[in-house]
Amino acid sequence: MSLIVSKFGGSSVSDAASINRVADRIVAMKTQGHDVVVVVSAMGDTTDELIDLAEQVVGSSEPPQREMDILLTAGERISMALLAMAIDSRGVPAQAFTGQQAGLITDASHGNARIIDVTPGRITECLGTGSVAIVAGFQGVNPDANDVTTLGRGGSDTTAVALAAGLGADVCEIYTDVDGVFTADPRIVPTARRIERITSDEMLEMAAHGAKILHLRSVEYARRFGVEIHVRSSFSMKEGTHVITPSEEEEGEMEAPIISGVAHDRSQAKVTCVGVPDVPGAAARLFETVAGAGVNIDMIVQNVSVAATGKTDISFTLPASDVALVRAALSLLADELGYDDVLYQDDIGKLSLVGAGMRSHPGVSAKLFGSLRDAGVNIEMISTSEIRISVVTAADQLDTAVRAVHTAFGLDAAEVEAVVYGGSGR
Amino acid sequence: MSLIVSKFGGSSVSDAASINRVADRIVAMKTQGHDVVVVVSAMGDTTDELIDLAEQVVGSSEPPQREMDILLTAGERISMALLAMAIDSRGVPAQAFTGQQAGLITDASHGNARIIDVTPGRITECLGTGSVAIVAGFQGVNPDANDVTTLGRGGSDTTAVALAAGLGADVCEIYTDVDGVFTADPRIVPTARRIERITSDEMLEMAAHGAKILHLRSVEYARRFGVEIHVRSSFSMKEGTHVITPSEEEEGEMEAPIISGVAHDRSQAKVTCVGVPDVPGAAARLFETVAGAGVNIDMIVQNVSVAATGKTDISFTLPASDVALVRAALSLLADELGYDDVLYQDDIGKLSLVGAGMRSHPGVSAKLFGSLRDAGVNIEMISTSEIRISVVTAADQLDTAVRAVHTAFGLDAAEVEAVVYGGSGR
């Protein structure tokens, strides 16, 4: 008998029929003798519909974040109550709990709160009576004000992992609409393989660089507390991908594959400051300004200064949605820094090769660059971490690049196995 | 400067446009210098849609009441957050509060909880900062379990009155889709007049006997705590109807009109037990059985026993929706009581004439019966209280009866003033 925390996203509970399908699945787990805690997102597009209503009401004003959180958390109240009813109607007792009732204590950052403690006394009590506990994802409580908070995008994954950690669960299952984490996006690489096991370090790199299946914060949380995540499909009983956090000792013993997968990201843009005077502190001033605008930059490249002019070009990438912020910030800096021009480019793509094994295998970069050259793909920027190499290409070359690299590193499956169902919940 | 509690029902906040209209109205009150607490119901048909979802999920099973309350209270979370945002976007600070946060403490009767205490500390605090407080209607908290509860039909009216009592508000405004309480339903009697002032005793009789504008429990609460209710239209700035609870002394001084209004009710059915043996205890046994089935009966008539047979007929009225319950209960009693037959009749109507002044004016019944006779309406049953006379007629004679009585007691207005907008919120 295990204690299982299972999270179902919005696409798994989009209507009464799918809620009943999830209920059947949970009843089956319970029948096998497991204790089950279910974390559930809002039904289908509920959250987007509520955001739309708020926009209709406030017009161009910014809605107050505290009230926005009250509004959005209504979605999970609906889905959690319905799922508890569905399970109960099958003769298995079930109780629904808000984030507050489940003990998800957060800070006061409405809209993007951090979990600071988990006190799941009521959940333990509920399980003790033989009931299934249904918990609203995405929400917690700021105990100082006794107000509901939300955890931001991907928040339900984080709720599930935090509860699994707080309850000492054996596994945290994240149900989604694909069979697990793949070596590449099967929509681009039909021969992509499902990854059976991946370390949380690798999963973090994959998530940070475009793999959308798990939200970054939930993986960080799982890594910190040693929670095993099992990413799997709500449409089949197949094994999915286990995301594990080996101890240092275990890590030494593991025969890690050199490469785990190829992530890609189309959401970045590139900014180039042309002709920046090559004087000490110029780059620092530039990036202070960008950071001051609240923008997270990803990759940075600075050309070698051309001796004759004493000027250099500095390029960096950032989320395309933040370009307007950077544009405003840099326009204030033009006189002070005295650069010649700023170029904005959003038709770029980023490919990231991730694998813990590349730590001990030289030659991975050479093979990557060679495969791209053979495929006729031009590399615009490069950045690396200990277990990742990323390159920026033109957007229209990204698919070609992903397929070429996937093949070059021997990741292709003998036959196509992936079935892709579409978008995923939060 | 006054402290005003204003309640807006579902039809007043059915979409973004109507929420913005309510926001304008509240901002105007605030601009006039009043402190304002707003109680709001779920948007339009939200509650019915949520009930429908629950039915889809549980099929023929009975959904657990605790989870049903979690589900239904999502509706008020949405409307209260949106209304707070709308007011805030007009430059007037506003904060939304759940029933729990507003201190509406109830018992544990999920689906039909009673308010046992009101501790509105957060609301007072909010008003102290110059903000408008928006409170979710219809919901409270059972503090023993820390679970949300709902107050049943008409619950938002009760929330508003309870908050007005707890805060010592100057008035509790109930906004609705008609101009106030009328001397009769203007859909039946186009010349019905708006009542300017009515005592809570009279309003209770009107509400208990078919006038749907205020829920019975909210009037009971207002009467007990001396809260003045102002029923008025959310579509105009006209004065509505003031429901007041005069002290005994004031009551003595008041020049009460003999008759306040004519209520009617089509939702009742009549049950007749034919040939009940006229022995001591037979009626008691009969009504014990009906009460045991959880049915509230209204009027009772027992014929004079026919000496030759030693048998009598007993008729009573009850909500038509409870007929199935009574039918089941009586079928178990047939052998024991030995009556000849039971007749069920749901094509009846009830007319009630209400007025505190009839206490001191003899002849009201005679005038009532005379006007019905002149209109050709047959009276099937009669019941009276100190300030009310009710008669049961055939359903198809009810409208004729209401019009005849309204005219006979001089209630007709010189010209038609009422505008009727349709259904009302909960």
Examine the secondary-structure arrangement and name the CATH architecture of the domain at 3-253 in chain A: 3-Layer(aba) Sandwich
Which parts of chain A are unreliable, with pLDDT below 50 for 5 consecutive residues or more?
422-426
Figure out the total of helices of chain A.
Answer: 13
Largest sheet of chain A: 8 strands, mixed
**Distance separating the two termini of chain A:** 29 Å
Q: Please, what is the CATH homologous superfamily of the domain at 3-253 in chain A?
A: Acetylglutamate kinase-like
- Give the strand tally of chain A: 20
Largest interface: A-B, 38 and 38 residues
- Quaternary structure type: homodimer
Radius of gyration of chain A: 23 Å
Summing up helix and strand content along with how strands pair, one would put the structural category of chain A as alpha/beta
- Spatially, the strands of the biggest sheet of chain A line up as 3-6-2-1-9-11-12-10
Averaging pLDDT over every residue of chain A, what do you get? Answer: 90
Give the fraction of residues assigned to helices of chain A. Answer: 25-40%
| Silhouette of chain A | globular
Q: What percent strand of chain A?
A: 15-25%
The CATH class of the domain at 3-253 in chain A is Alpha Beta
CATH topology of the domain at 3-253 in chain A: Carbamate kinase
Keywords (chains A, B): Amino-acid biosynthesis, ATP-binding, Diaminopimelate biosynthesis, Kinase, Lysine biosynthesis, Nucleotide-binding, Transferase
Binding site for substrate (chains A, B): 47, 76
Family (chains A, B): Belongs to the aspartokinase family.
Domain ACT (chains A, B): 271-350, 353-426
